[in-house]
Amino acid sequence: MFLKCLPAAALLLAAAPAFAQPPAASSTPPPAASSQPPSAQSAAAAAIQPAAMAFGQCLQTGLQGVPATVTPEAGAAAVLGGCGTQRGALVAAVEAMLATLPADQQAAGRAQLQSRLGEVPTQLADAIRQSRGAAPTAAPATPPPAATPH
């Protein structure tokens, strides 16, 4: 079930082709061809998939080891900290692919990368809550009023 709760890594995979796409509607002429040949772009984009899969697998494994004694947020931070190497490899793979694109597309791609990575801590905390049987946005239950003895 943790895989369903970790769409960020999958979204990075799905977004990789979007990084390589020129903006949909632009009032400027199409950008000049990238400084890298298409095969370099394809190779750089292909490197993202295994890096994203490794990051996602690390997150999934880390979630399974979060102790019940820590808050979901602390657990998410611990899991992310334990997956720093895989996260770094993913970022490096995306950056390598972005480097093959025109400058205007690089900026948009970096913004999207940071946005997706910024969603991961919340998604991890929600996954921890869900695994503990609490709804991701559930408010604490109000205890019933104490009975008064007669």
Q: How helix-rich are the residues, as a percent range?
A: 55-70%
Q: How much of the polypeptide forms β-strand, as a percent range?
A: under 5%
Helix count, DSSP H or I runs of 4 or more residues: 6
**Rg (CA only):** 21 Å
Kindly give the count of domains. 1
List low-pLDDT spans: 1-5, 7-34
Q: Span from first to last CA?
A: 49 Å
Q: Specify the overall morphology.
A: elongated
Overall pLDDT: 77
Helix and strand content put the structural class at mainly alpha
Report the strand count: 0
Outline the structure in words.
This protein has 150 residues and is mostly helical. It has one domain (2-20, 39-131). 63% of the residues lie in helices and 0% in strands. It has six helices and no strands. The termini are far apart. Residues 1-5 and 7-34 have low confidence and may be disordered.
In brief, what are we looking at here?
Helix 1 packs antiparallel against helix 6 and helix 3 crosses helix 4 (72-82).
Overview features:
150 residues; mainly alpha; disordered N terminus
How are the SSEs placed, and which strands pair?
Elements: H1 7-19, H2 38-46, H3 48-64, H4 72-82, H5 84-98, H6 103-131
Helix pairs in contact: 1-3, 1-6, 2-5, 3-4, 3-5, 4-6, 5-6
